[in-house]
Design goal:
The chain is of the alpha+beta class. It has five helices and 14 strands. Helix 3 runs antiparallel to helix 5 and helix 4 packs across helix 5. The longest helix has 25 residues. The structure holds adenine.
Length: 269
């Protein structure tokens, strides 16, 4: 009886450890170096916020199985970057950046932390932030991606088998830069009616690094492999492009990002 209990307890501990290791692997980690902000991204979390895609001409890309294909020039990471969280609990959060949305308290997270650290390192100046806040204020409501119409074309005659075709045209904005691109896509809301604007940062596979900081050569992903991406003085402008994407995504994103930049500015003074 006692032996069974010990075995059960040991199994529970092992399962719990494996669960924690998996949760840690999926986290996007942000680390500050002397002259760069380094982000650690999971490569094989195919259902998570970071996915490997093959480039396509329409810009949407095709998801690939990272452990089955040699990841190289044709591939990129599509990262649904976050900027806030309801409770600051891990090192990717910035408790100094605290703001409210519709009465709910939010803390800075991922993009907020990266910009906060980039300002601390001098990769982005407080002047850049002031300039961005002014630009965000000038975006007119009609320019928001969420205000763009979704066109639905219904064919007038159904085919012989009785099926009628409907074509949906969803707007997508892409800003291509020398460091990667940033996209705003309209997606169907998951728990409500209508569409929401989603922001994705697209990083070429050729620009990611191995855990030791050296360039990652083309190869299939190893189990639970993580890669690094660095924001430094050469590509800090890419961060401002991401800010602009959120500013154009919707009124709510625009307001949130303005609040976040104002907080970063406050703590930099
Ligand atoms: N809110 C926080 N991060 C987001 C993202 N990447 N796209 C849309 N909304 C978000």
């Amino acid at each position: 009886m006692r032996k069974n209990f010990v075995i059960l307890f040991a199994l529970f501990c092992l399962t719990f450890r494996a669960f924690c290791a998996d949760a840690e692997y999926k986290l996007v980690r942000v680390e500050t170096l002397t002259n760069a902000v380094r982000v650690r991204l999971p490569l094989t979390d195919v259902t998570g916020k970071v996915r490997v895609k093959e480039k396509t001409v329409d810009g949407f890309g095709i998801p690939v199985a990272p452990s089955k294909v040699s990841l190289g020039r044709k591939h990129y990471l599509e990262w649904q970057i976050g900027y806030d969280t309801p409770d600051a609990k891990d090192i990717t959060d910035v408790p100094e950046i605290k703001f409210t949305r519709k009465g709910e308290t939010k803390y800075g997270h991922e993009l907020s932390k990266i910009i906060f650290e980039a300002v601390r390192l001098g990769l982005i100046s407080t002047n850049d932030l002031l300039h961005e806040i002014e630009a965000l204020k000038k975006i007119r409501p009609a320019e928001f991606e969420e205000s763009q119409p979704v066109q639905v074309e219904v064919s007038t005659n159904s085919s012989a088998d009785g099926f009628q075709s409907v074509v949906q045209r969803l707007p997508q904005f892409t800003k291509t830069t020398p460091h990667g691109s940033v996209q705003i896509q309209l997606k169907q809301k998951q728990r409500a009616v209508g569409y929401q604007a989603m922001v994705y940062v697209c990083i070429p596979m050729t620009d990611v690094l191995l855990p030791d900081g050296t360039p990652r050569p083309p190869a299939k992903a190893k189990s639970k492999e993580t890669v690094l991406y660095e924001f430094n003085s050469a590509n800090a402008g890419f961060l401002l492009d991401i800010v602009q994407a959120f500013g154009k995504a919707s009124q709510q994103h625009n307001e949130d990002i303005q609040k976040i930049l104002a907080k970063i500015l406050e703590s930099a003074r």
